[in-house]
Amino acid sequence: ATTGELRRWERDGTAWRAVGAPVPVVVGRSGLLPAADKREGDGAAPAGRFALGDATGYGNKPRGVRLRYRVATPELRCVDDVAAPEYNTLTAAPVTWRSDEKMRRDDELYRYTIFVRHHDARAPGMGSCIFLHVWRDATSPTVGCTAMALADLRALLSWVDPATELVQLPRDEYEKRQRAWGLPAQRK
Fold first, then answer.
1. What would the pLDDT profile of 161-173 be if each residue is shown by its tens digit?
2. Confidence (pTM)
3. Are the beta carbons of 109 and 141 closer than 8 angstroms?
4. Are the CB atoms for 58 and 110 separated by under 8 Å?
């Protein structure tokens, strides 16, 4: 599947409380793949439990954003060159590497992004530059990121903090891990 729902939850003591309505999302054109099996260029979004990194955007930091925020200047890149020491990092060009992703695009897809820390070890070839970002539309998959409507991403940006985790799994895998990971029960 290349579509799904993002649900926000907060823990109130030992009980989970849903925050807002479910948000439609699109994921990689190859669906979801366990992060340990993810490879550069496979077209899959990573499945698992992940910390969130920096947020970026085309303008100044929006009010309420608690993540570290970087303005997406024309020089800001995410490096996807597996041979570069900067692999899977946001850094400013020009540095000598063979390929990168411009964080300031000519479209609105990266109007805002949140870096998904799907493998902090930055092992070459395990996939890079995975973000939560603005979708093209509700049916067009990404090349490995998770995307949603601009308004939904803005709401998410003002809600997450550095301790927020992203749990991104197919429904059956979520149900298998729900108790062990201490996750809220799925609504059918």
1. 999 999 999 999 9
2. 0.95
3. no
4. yes
